[in-house]
Amino acid sequence: MAKSKNNNTNKLSYISVPSQIINSLSSSSLQSLLLSPKKSSRSKTRYLSWFTNYRSPKFWVLFLFLFGFLGMLKLGFNLDPLIPYSPYPCTTSQLQNLVSNGYLKSHMAIASNGENSHQVEVFNSVSHSQPLISNVNLKSEVGVEEAEQSEFWKQPDGLGYRPCLALSNEYKKASVGIVKDKTKYLIVVVSGGMNQQRNQIVDAVVIARILGAALVVPILQVNVIWGDESEFSDIFDLEHFKKVLANDVRIVSSLPSTHIMTRPVEEKRTPLHASPNWIRSRYLKRIKREGVLLLRGLDSRLSKDLPSDLQKLRCKVAFHALRFAPPILGIGNKLAERMSSKGPYLALHLRMEKDVWVRTGCLPGLSPEYDEIVNNERIQRPELLTGRSNMTYHERKLAGLCPLNALEVTRLLKALGAPKNARIYWAGGHPFGGKEALLPLTGEFPHFYNKEDLALPGELEPFSNRASVMAAIDYIVSENSDVFMPSHGGNMGHAIQGHRAYAGHKKYITPDKRHMLPYFLNSSLPEAEFNRIIKELHKDSLGQPDLRTSRAGKDVTKYPVPECMCNDSRTHSYL
């Protein structure tokens, strides 16, 4: 049998004989085909007469018939029917070896069990029906595409910056008396979500240091929105917290018996941007007199512009002391490992919950019905609006004050070169509108997971109905990602931005909403031009070192360069 298949530039031919026929032919049967049986003398005389009469046409007909028959048998038995003809014999022989030793089959079987099984099926159909040169071209095209996609995972140049928290001699000398003092105690009540609480705990440690007081383990106020009753030790590793800060501030679990009956001085109105001098002048005499000071509402009250040693202390608390409790760290690292087991992954912090749309004065844009629900709740509860009340929704949107919705996140990622097969972990609460709100993302990026998707049955059960713990798990998986991007600002985005910078400036995409949204609204802009503009807008917003000195009033835990990081090897020191 002969089989051929045409291609644009090459032809591939097959000659095959069923294995059943080959196996059924013994050596004797083959000989019987090739050798004529003995004939009678009359037959011999007849054949001799044909051969002597060589000019007879019958002789030549018989000769050509036998020659052709024997040639076909020879060709059929010697040519391997599994190997097609190829103008590239080396490639063909390599493929034959792979098939014969079982490597190709086993490799493809393993791949078919994964998420790229459809790609293996495509390879099977191409390799059996098209010339091998087509496979070579296909692989080269895939290689170019993979090279372009790998640019998305490329990490920014950290310029050699590394953590350096070397403290001054004056700070170290003062520490000796501060950690031994047992007359002054600071109690702090922190509120809000987990990331908001982290910020207040950092401030509490610095204020305790300024006052030379011992810090009672911060009290986590019950969250009125989520009803989370978690305590400090439920979320953070308390013993680690005490150990890391042992030379800076004395941390105690509770007031000693000498102070337990003391009525603390309570302060509820710490002003914004309070300086160390203001704190000393306001609280030092009172805490010395009463022995105990109680502070509430510390959110963003402490000044962001502090002396160098106190800035380093802030970094030490945020990046070293506040480690999550072992159970949370364990499950968070497991989920991160599952995400990274098949290559790099992107973490998105999506702010698409109902309360976010209400508080920001923005609309989800899913449908008029959903927009009306948000507007009605904002009218009924105007105190929830934290944005500028004198701006319309469209003004907020163009000013970059609204969270990105799923469609906008999708277009941004595509423009920045995110591959369609990118593995994406999304952190955050359940979006308003449910799965429908995520359809643009899941349609373009099918490998889309959250902690519920990754966890095994029962793994998250110990943490159910504890929003702060769930936020901590999101934090761990996001921090371990290769690329991180928030859809909106906020405490978690800011904390992870600083954490990733401190870890060596891991890639962090900051959406330039104010400048890019006009292009999103321009439907006549060609896709290629749109992508070029978006990439240009974000070329300096990918997690490169950003000095805080050029951003007065910004938190050092978000911009740790230069107070907490340096690129001079002579000054690299943890303490």
UniProtKB/TrEMBL annotation:
It comes from the Eukaryota. It holds the Pfam family O-FucT. CDD domains: O-FucT_plant. The chain crosses the membrane at residues 57-77. Keywords: Carbohydrate metabolism, Fucose metabolism, Glycoprotein, Glycosyltransferase, Membrane, Signal-anchor, Transferase, Transmembrane, Transmembrane helix. It is a single-pass type II membrane protein. Signal peptide: none annotated. Pathway: Glycan metabolism. It is found in: Membrane. PANTHER family: O-FUCOSYLTRANSFERASE 20, OS02G0726500 PROTEIN-RELATED. Belongs to the glycosyltransferase GT106 family. This is O-fucosyltransferase family protein.
